[in-house]
Structure formats: structure tokens, C-alpha cells
Amino acid sequence: xxLPLDPRTFMARAIELSRLHMExxxxxxxxxxxxxDGVIVGEGWNRVTSTCDPTAxxxxxxxxxxxxxxxxxxxxxxxxxxxxxxxxxxxAAIYWARLGRIYYANDQADAAAISFDxxxxxxxxxxxxxxxxxxxxxxxxxxxxxxxxxxxxxxxKIRY
Amino acid sequence: xxLPLDPRTFMARAIELSRLHMExxxxxxxxxxxxxDGVIVGEGWNRVTSTCDPTAxxxxxxxxxxxxxxxxxxxxxxxxxxxxxxxxxxxAAIYWARLGRIYYANDQADAAAISFDxxxxxxxxxxxxxxxxxxxxxxxxxxxxxxxxxxxxxxxKIRY
Lengths: 160, 160
Fold this sequence. Notes:
The structure is a homodimer.
Chain A: H1 7-23, E1 31-36, E2 39-45, H2 48-51, H3 58-70, E3 78-84, H4 88-96, E4 101-106, H5 108-113, H6 118-126, E5 136-138, H7 141-153
Parallel strand pairs in A: 3-4
Antiparallel strand pairs in A: 1-2, 1-3
Helix pairs in contact in A: 3-4
């Protein structure tokens, strides 16, 4: 008999989601669940191609669903189970969501073998701005800084 | 008279969005627009706290709106104007969306000065897995690999 808090139970669900929705043609083979106190509070799967949303990766959609169901922008005290090691977008989303632990199954090399080259993206994100393949240009900093100063002075702001 | 394709026109709109929605209490002071052939096809602003979505940064929401309006998961040939240098989540989302260029106004140091510490997150994302402050555990790789193999063999898959 498996314990209800066995991490394998939740990972099995993440992997099941990856298979079901891939077979349904909704996107790439990726699934994820967010767990709080031994209960799944959010499920996600890749929906990039079916919803025309390049940000609709499994982890991001699981985070969105979990936050909606908990009515909170913080998932502090929760864990995420993902069928594949997160890409940089999903990893940063996991940090922003304040998740406490990541369980993953497939790793970066496995993803690269089926043409999802997260390793390249990890390298790009880590490069200094002028060295990236995607050009960045700074302009109108002074105008934008004025808005930052207004935020800093805003008495009723909600930090996150 | 300013030319319609002057990058300052689009950045001014991104900055305007950052101010309007910050003042309305929807989230942090960040705005972004996606431009295709000199026309704005998507607008976004930070809605983290007001929509309980930690992924609702300005760039991500602008990308989602642009993709919806173009009915495409690719923004190839488009540019993004953001009132602040993107965090790693937004930067990776910009790569996934195939955007061709980034214009930004405030930079990482400006964001850090108002307590948005993207620099720390950039460092975390670049670290080897065991060195990150957020623990990662691998399990059930074999089960998940089976789904990757099924994807690889799927005849009608849509790559992205």
C-alpha cells in the first residue's frame, strides 16, 4: 500500500497529464501538478499550440490554476511535480510563485533528445545582454524611472 | 511631428501602461507592447496581485494578447517594448514567442532599487541544479521517458 504523501503518487499524475493531453493534440508532452499539504491544488499541461499561447507550459498553467483555486498570488508552502525539468521561463515562474520544492522526471538532456532545446535557452538567459542572440536596446529610461519613483512613493502598494 | 515607426512612440505607450495600471492598483509598475509592422498587436501590464497570477508580468500578458489577436503561437517578425528590462521568466517567454528584438527602458538596477530583485533570480537560474536555493529532486524518469518516446513517434505532432 502506498502512502498518500508518496511523491510518486503526484509525479504519476503529472506524467499521466503529459500523456493524455499530448495524445489529445493539445501541445508538447509535458504535465505538472501543484501540491499543498498532500493535496493537488493545481494541474497543468502544455497547451502552446492549441491555445496559441507560447507561455502555456505545464508548470505555468499548473501555477495559474493553483493560484486561482487558492485565490492567492503566492504558493508558499506548496511543491510542484513536473514531468520534465523546467525551462528557464517555468523555473523563474516557480520562483515568482514562491514554490518550495521541485520534483521532476525527464531532464534537460531527455528534452533535447526530442528537440526541446532548453539548454540553449539556459545559456542565452545567463549571458550578458550584448552577448545574447536576441538584440536588446535601451531607451527612455528617465521617463520610465519616473513611474518607478511613483510606485516607490505609493502608500497602498501590494508587494510581491 | 514624430514618425509612426519611431521606437519612442511604442515605448511611450509601454511606459503609459505601466503608470496607468500601477495607479489603478492592478500590480507593479510595468508595461509592455508587442509591435508588428509598425502596429501595436498586444498590450500588457503587471497584474500579479490583482489577478492572483504570479506569471502575469507585463511582457507575458502582452505576449498572450498579441498571440490571441494574431491567432498564432509565434510572434516571429514582431518586437517587444517593455518599460523595464525583462526578468528571466519574461526573457525566456520572449524567446519562446520568437520575438525578434527587445526595447527596454528601466534596467535591472533600477528594478532592484524599488525591491524587484531580478538580479538574484538571474543568478539562481544560471546555477547548476544542486547549487540552487530551491531544491530539485528527480524521480520516475523511466515512466516519463516513455511519454517522450510516444511524442517522438507521433505522426501528427505540431512542433513549436
